[in-house]
TrEMBL record:
Pfam assignment, any one: MARVEL
GO cellular component, one term: apical plasma membrane
Predominant location category: membrane
Official protein name in the record: Plasmolipin
Its membrane topology: Multi-pass membrane protein
UniProt GO BP: myelination
Family classification: Belongs to the MAL family.
Subcellular location: Apical cell membrane; Myelin membrane
Subunit structure as annotated in this protein's UniProt entry: Forms oligomers.
MARVEL domain: residues covered: 1-120
Keyword match Nucleotidyltransferase: no
Alphabetized UniProt keyword annotations: Cell membrane, Membrane, Transmembrane, Transmembrane helix
Transmembrane segments: 20-44, 56-83, 95-116
Amino acid sequence: VLGLLVWSLIAATTYHLHAAYGWVMFVSLFFWILTLLFFMTYLLQLQLKFYVIPWPLVLMIYNAVATVLYITAFVTCAAAVHPTSWRQWDYNRRAAASFFACVTMITYGVSTFFSFRAWKGLGSNAATSQVTDHA
């Protein structure tokens, strides 16, 4: 939802006049589509059919790359917002897109942390841990 907000707010402006917003559009739209594909994969439990793929590692790498690229998109978007814009509605949408790009970047960063914990097997609960008998 956050990525959708970023690219829809940018798409509602005259982003084609500024090259910086092209990068923001690419990053936000690319990762929004990939996130939807991962979501559908897990929703339909297709990861169980492709058991040879190390899904926790794939998700950790995906989230880390998304975090890094969203950092660049956020900085680019925030630097390109000018309060003296000749179109006030473009300024408001670009400023909101900057804010949501920051929130999306933080969300992907938190997802990277949890994906790392899942990849390392940290944080398992009593239902998923294996109990061994040391008798």
